[in-house]
Amino acid sequence: MSKDNLENHPSNDLTKSLSYVFSLLERGAKKRNDDLHLLTLSTVNAENQPQSRNVVLRKFDVNNSIIRFHTDIRSSKIQEITNNSSVSLIGYDKKNKLQIRISANAIIEDNKKSLSEIWSNMYPMSRECYRVTEEPGKIISSISDVSFQNEGEDKLNGFENFVVINCKINIIETLFLFASGHIRAKYNYKDNEFHGEWLVP
Fold first, then answer.
1. Residue 40's closest CA among 57, 22, 59?
2. Sign of the Cα pseudo-torsion (76, 105, 111, 52, in order)
């Protein structure tokens, strides 16, 4: 990016930069091929060891400061979140050379009506992974041991394994990587709004 373009880049202003990052997260939730469609989620297990895996960004709710992803209720991350709701999410937008780090509290959605509405709007291929008969991460002797329930006439097979995780954002850190000098900022969520400050890159 040229020096002239950099001077007009939203990263030079705390408020504009945050709005720009929000727009990228909203786009990431909608576009499957977007860099921010996949985020890395980190939790802590019972042995106090960090556990990381990729999750699909399903929704970014800017008004309520929430990031949403879906998972299998039998997965290890559910017990980890139950024991310690503090999580971290990280994403990297290659085109914009932007790293986003998020600290949040994960909340397991238990409203069956809400879950049912989300389930009914999912693609069949997305629902299929919840019909695996054994719990994710279980040791098997062969890949042929993996089996799935059929969809069922009501298309509800697997629904009992489906759950939504809403991550209430506490902190967002942004890092724009520029050859002329990186720009890093931190935003703390307090009193229903984000308060920004600059950080040394």
1. 57
2. negative
